[in-house]
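check this:
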Amino acid sequence: MRLSTKGEYASRAMLELSVRYAEGALHIRDISAAQGIPERFLEQILLQLKRAGYLRSRKGPKGGYFLAKPPSRISVAEVIRVMDGPLAPIDCVSVTAHDPCPREPYCGLKGLWKEVRDAVAEILERTTFEDMAERSRVAKARSVTP
């Protein structure tokens, strides 16, 4: 798996929305400033996440984007798949986008790539954005405390 800039920015945006979940809707400019993501690129990412059902938006002065469900119910894997596709390092071991290879029946590497896919998927599937928000809070507290 190779995380694209789009996947990284989507993860960071989802993290910001998770950390500030109780605040409700956030303006794009606030997410952009907090996470260092260019606004124009962020707008495209948020629209894609909205179309995928992870975000909602509201217009007006108290408008902006907010999570469609609690961060405890959104795994990091889900967001990465929306932005970057399958988690598999190569197509022949992908669960969602399997592309057969003529070498599959005798390939010595396929087992290794399947193990890599399974390990990455297991970590990203069990990690929610609530987990990441808590990690962020702990990291921030450590950086402030002398």
